[in-house]
Amino acid sequence: MRISYIAGNWKMNTTKKEALDLVTELLNEGSFKNKVLIAPPYTLLDAISNAVKGTNLILGAQNMSTHESGAHTGEVSVLMLRDLGVDTVILGHSERRSIYGESDQIINTKIKLALKHNLNIIFCVGETLEERENGLAEKVVTDQIINGLEGVSDSDMDSITVAYEPVWAIGTGKTSTPEDADSIHRIIRNKIEAIYSKNVSEKLIIQYGGSVKPSNVKELMAKENIDGALVGGAALKAETFIPIMEYNK
Ligand code: 13P
User: Fold this and answer.
1) 60: Cβ below 6 Å to ligand 1?
2) How are beta strands 228-231 and 88-91 bridged, if at all?
3) If you measure from the C-alpha of residue 132 to the centroid of ligand 1, how many angstroms do you get, rounded to a whole number?
4) What is the DSSP letter of 158?
5) Is 103 helix (H, G, I), strand (E, B) or coil?
6) 29, 67, 121, 235: which has the fewest Cβ within 10 Å?
7) pLDDT score, position 232
8) Which residues contact 170 (CB under 8 A, 6 or more apart)?
């Protein structure tokens, strides 16, 4: 039985006060029967790390550099994330792929670097609308899985959660139907079984992301291969994130 894993990706949102207020509300009013992560912007990781210390709220970062240290102006390294008590890093988000040109190879380098330093990973994959309309969703997602996990071992897979985020569903209000999402999740699980083993594929947590809201989380989570959610917009307010965290309360 896989646990349910709900993650909030705050993207480039929240001032320090807004962030601390939101964390306080989540901790005071939410319950943590499911695994719950929040990924604030880099600038707030230190403050939020202190705020969540000793609680069940897990701290994530939204990205990291391909390098450990050195002359990389504007970048943030895995060592810096570890130093702040970050548990998990989101890698391969479609906004990193499409706006900042991150290739599967760059994402693979980051995944291996995060593993080297014992960071857990939420590894995002997903097709664009054009790719879906051309019948390429399965191929795109499968290629992203194969290339992103190149050189990643069976035991490393214990540190990896996959998030399927169809790009056309992110921030648009359009959600994949639970059936469509589940069928891609199944394809991902089958591919992981082919690369690794049935044991690894059955343990793998696969989150769905793309306009997850309190009103649709239950039917998504009811699907066999959907084990969690990676939430953007609805993670920015306690009144919408708590009902998602507690979808099965
Ligand atoms: P929305 O929930 O705002 O569609 O964002 C999804 C997402 O990209 C989470 O990483």
Assistant:
1) no
2) unpaired
3) 18
4) G
5) coil
6) 29
7) 98
8) 94, 95, 126, 209, 210, 211, 232
Cα gap 44→166, rounded to integer Å: 28
Read off φ and ψ for residue 91, nearest 5 degrees. -130, 145
Q: Say how far apart CA 195 and CA 191 lie, in whole Å.
A: 6
Token reading at 239: 């009144």
At residue 110, the pLDDT reads 98
Which CATH number applies to 5-245?
3.20.20.70
How much distance in Å is there from the Cα of 43 to the middle of ligand 1?
Answer: 20
Count, residues in the chain: 249
CA distance 58 to 49: 9
pLDDT at residue 159, as a whole number: 98
Q: Is the CB of residue 165 below 6 angstroms from any atom belonging to ligand 1? A: yes
Question: pLDDT digits over 4-55, tens only?
Answer: 999 999 999 999 999 999 999 999 999 999 999 999 999 999 999 999 999 9
- Please tell me the residue having the least CA distance from ligand 1 atom 5: 232
- Cα gap 133→206, rounded to integer Å: 23
- In this predicted model, what pLDDT tens digit does every residue of 132-165 receive, in sequence order? 999 999 999 999 999 999 999 999 999 999 999 9
CB half-sphere exposure, 71, CA atoms < 13 A: 0
Count of C-beta atoms within a 10 Å radius of residue 223: 17
The yes-or-no answer on residue 67 being catalytic is no
Judge if the beta carbon of residue 211 lies within 6 A of ligand 1. yes
Closest CA to 163 of 184, 135, 147, 132: 184
With 90 as the cut, is the pLDDT of residue 171 above it? no
